Amino acid sequence: MIYAKMEHHEELVCATDFKRGHNYFCPGCKERVTYKNGPQKQAHFAHYKKTCHYFSEGETDAHVIGKKLIKLWAEKRHKQAKIEEYLPKIKQRPDVLINLRNSQLVVEYQCSPLSLDSFRKRTKGYKEHGYRIFWILGKRHMLGQRLTQQQAMFINFHKNIGYFLVYLDAEKQCLVLKYELCFENLYGLRYRTGIFTDATALMLFIKINSRNRNLALTRSELAGQLTKLEKNCHYLNRYLKNQIDYCYARRQLFMGFPLCCLSESRLPPIYQHEDIFWRIRVVLELQEVMADSITRSEIELMFMKHQKITKMFF
Fold this sequence. Notes:
The protein is an alpha+beta fold. Helix content is 32%, strand content 23%. It contains eight helices and 13 strands. The longest helix is centred in the N-terminal third of the chain and has 16 residues, at 61-76. The relative contact order is 0.07.
């Protein structure tokens, strides 16, 4: 932790303002702490015994710099902000607590891995006590071509920018916005990127941006899905091999599926695998169970209705 209470003082003292000859105490568990500093770790306070559940220790430079930047950006907007303000009712201490006009906003700058259970517990704790919460991610959570569970749980939605994630680059001291997140069959994750000097610039962009609502794929993009799938069949991964075996066991060619199995629009970032695979399975099951009572056109109509439902997520 970077803040501790000096003996006989109520105000928190930053580790960078440490003075020798004084005793310092954890504001959470009230135990005495020691000052540490080194080439790999930012100056911080640490417990003599690892029995405190309120504060983390040995923060990276990026995490400390990020929290200070968030506080600075809030103060530029004339908002009172505190770093590591301990909340005794819920026994949690947010990275930054910002006082708004009619509420309080918790900002968590997540640089390290976080389990889904911990994420849910912390988010629930804040919300149940009336705090708004917003997660900003560090570099280790940066989006690539695939969306991981660690990234997916932090996704937000706004009507002007769609599904999005916000990152803080402590080294360049800027905010990075990944927005209009969506999936395109066989091509994986698609998104746009914006870089902003501070929180004010980011908020202005979100306010005035007009999201692209045309999610339909062109004919060339649909044809590209087929080409991509044929190419993937030559480089089998375990999941694709299971799909091919599933079709073969039912005396069907995997590449012989009806075109209605191709998604005609981009999809919200909620699927673990491309929806073309479960569509093919649905077709095979329907043909097997209802061979005499369902036609190909009825199957296609069913998927057209699914396309309309999917668009509601955007």
